[in-house]
Structure formats: structure tokens, C-alpha cells
Amino acid sequence: MPTNGQIDQRHPTGERQIPALSGLPRPLYARAESLSAGSWTPPHRHDWVQFSYAISGVLGVHTAEGSFFAPPQWGVWVPAGLEHEVVTSMRAEMRSLYIRTADSGWAPQRC
């Protein structure tokens, strides 16, 4: 189990399980993840905004709009409802902030 108390949801093949949330428990919800080399999520979408920030390693976020990469100290903005997948080719530390759609009217609508 990671030191942040969250269950390690990585699959032996590198596939990461997406948290089973039907909605956010509060307007802002933060997650911390340690990702192994070759980690990936299947394409998915959700009803909240996601900002994923790389502490170390490089995050790749692929959408129909394009592919976006975040080296350390950079992040990727994912609007609510946009199908995306997150991949890492090397070990990475990722921090994500999920923002409830009702509280994100100011948010950009593109990555």
C-alpha cells in the first residue's frame, strides 16, 4: 500500500485501475500516485475537471485533441467529459486535483 494511504491499483501488466467514483466526495479532491514504468490507464472520461501534475518522471495524456506531456513541475489540464488516457514510460510521481464541474465555470474547455 502506498504511504499516502490509497490502495495501489496497478495491474501486473502496467494497467492502472481508474477509481470507481460516481461523483466527487467534495468540490476539490486530491490524489497522489506513484506510477511504475509502463503504467497506463485505459481511455476513460468523467464528469469533473482533472489537473495532473508531474512531481517526477513524465506524464503523457492522450486525447482526441492531441497528446500532451508533462515533465517534472508541469501539468496537464483535462476538461470534464473529455476522453483521455494517461501513460508513463518511466517511473513517475503524479499528483491530481479533481474539480467538481459545478465549481469550474472559470476553467478552460481544452487541454
Automatic annotation (TrEMBL):
Coiled-coil segments on the chain, per record: none
Q: Where is the AraC-type arabinose-binding/dimerisation domain?
A: 41-101
Give the matching Pfam families: AraC_binding (PF02311)
Keyword vocabulary terms for this entry? DNA-binding
The Gene Ontology biological process terms listed for this entry are: regulation of DNA-templated transcription
Annotated region (Disordered) at 1-22
Which Gene Ontology molecular-function terms are recorded? DNA binding
- InterPro entries in the record, alphabetically? AraC-bd, RmlC-like_jellyroll, RmlC_Cupin_sf
What's the superkingdom here? Bacteria
Q: What is this protein called?
A: AraC family transcriptional regulator
Highest classification ranks of the organism: Bacteria, Pseudomonadati, Pseudomonadota, Gammaproteobacteria, Pseudomonadales
